Amino acid sequence: MLYVIGIGPGGLDMMTYQAREAIEQADVIVGYKTYTHLIKALVGDKPVIKTGMCKELERCQAALELAQNGKTVALVSSGDAGIYGMAGLILELVSKQDWYVDVKVIPGMTASIAAGAVLGAPLMHDFCHISLSDLLTPWPVIEKRIQAAADADFVICFYNPRSRGREGHLRRAFELMAPYKAPTTPVGIVKEAGRRKQQHWLTTLEAMDFELVDMRTLVVVGNQSTYVDNGLMVTPRGYQV
Amino acid sequence: MLYVIGIGPGGLDMMTYQAREAIEQADVIVGYKTYTHLIKALVGDKPVIKTGMCKELERCQAALELAQNGKTVALVSSGDAGIYGMAGLILELVSKQDWYVDVKVIPGMTASIAAGAVLGAPLMHDFCHISLSDLLTPWPVIEKRIQAAADADFVICFYNPRSRGREGHLRRAFELMAPYKAPTTPVGIVKEAGRRKQQHWLTTLEAMDFELVDMRTLVVVGNQSTYVDNGLMVTPRGYQV
User: Fold this and answer.
1) What are the pLDDT digits (tens) for A188-200?
2) Which candidate from A18, A126, A239 shows the least CB-CB separation from B89?
3) Tens of pLDDT, residues A25-56
4) What is the ipTM of this complex?
5) Domains of chain B listed by start with CATH number
6) Buried (b) or exposed (e) across A50-80, using 16+ Cβ within 10 A?
7) Which of A218, A234, A235 to mutate to test the interface with B (most CBs of B within 10 A)?
């Protein structure tokens, strides 16, 4: 049995009961080392197979092999395993490589939701997730999505906004939104949402400081109704208040 | 103190520890009756103020008044309180009506994530949330978002897809997507995700049965890479498998 588990942002308090139970039931834990560290209180003395970043395929195959050999395996992702996590790759491998493994995906709190609660209530109206990583997606596809989402006045959550090798992507995304969103559109920046080192900032499209952003940061750009009051970012749903 | 709490889809197993703790600490619980019923095991003999559907403003004001009078109040929403829930309205009321209340938003698992795990891994690539309720949003705004999202090849999650008074909205949404998404695009339908009566179906854009859908249903429409295999809906992220 292979549980593909979203552990949420990192703190045990934002994990679901179902995720916790699955980790406790597992014989062995597999995951990127930052994530296995976050849940070490639950893992106890179970064997942990850690792999580094960008070793997704290796990590998934290790988990499938253990499960096929009869182990109950917990493959952990931060956030939700089904959102830029490991669930898709596991299910692709199962269907294309003839593994005989039962897989159960256990959902978790994705970064946008955790970040939204920190900022106030910026996601109250239609919103989208866009990853700025072009490791697996052609950049023109990403550009088209940014423009379409800005033109249709979605709130936009940027995942993987910045890292070594693509410092300029977020700046380019802001240039692409500029024709559609006002310069004063509120922008929320949350680093390490839901973890002990959590930090957040409120700014605007025109005053954005890209240096605040790294790979562990989520950036939320408001729609045309979003406002900031008393340090909180709110997107009204349309109630007459 | 007012906790605005997302309880997740409904089952206690998909609630976070933080949400559970806040409910346990509260003096009084406020919420739409379906949601207060879902958490009755946690509520014990605390007073519960239930209100009916479409009484959002009344419910929020009741919660604020209790909190201003010194009670610790848990205002519960299903899913995440910050996604089409009560967090935005509470924060709007606090800033516009001069309530003196400390508010803490406690995030929860929204329906798309719970539904995604049931269907497989349909949300592995960029996706958006669109509510088809035009009670608070002009219908032309919704139409523009549907077209933009379909044109830019987002996976699309439809919230509030159908109810009495707007039976035709989902059918219209499918007509609007037709120029951009292939007729064979996979569609996942999840009713009562994460609850005991959960049901789900897989179909396609052209074979969609709108009669399966009600207000407690989430509809997920794939992107051009989404496929169904072995009863699971998967949107590949782009790994070479």
Assistant:
1) 999 999 898 999 9
2) A239
3) 999 999 988 888 888 889 989 999 987 666 88
4) 0.96
5) 2-106 (3.40.1010.10), 111-234 (3.30.950.10)
6) ebeeeebeebbebbbebbeeebebbbbbbbb
7) A234
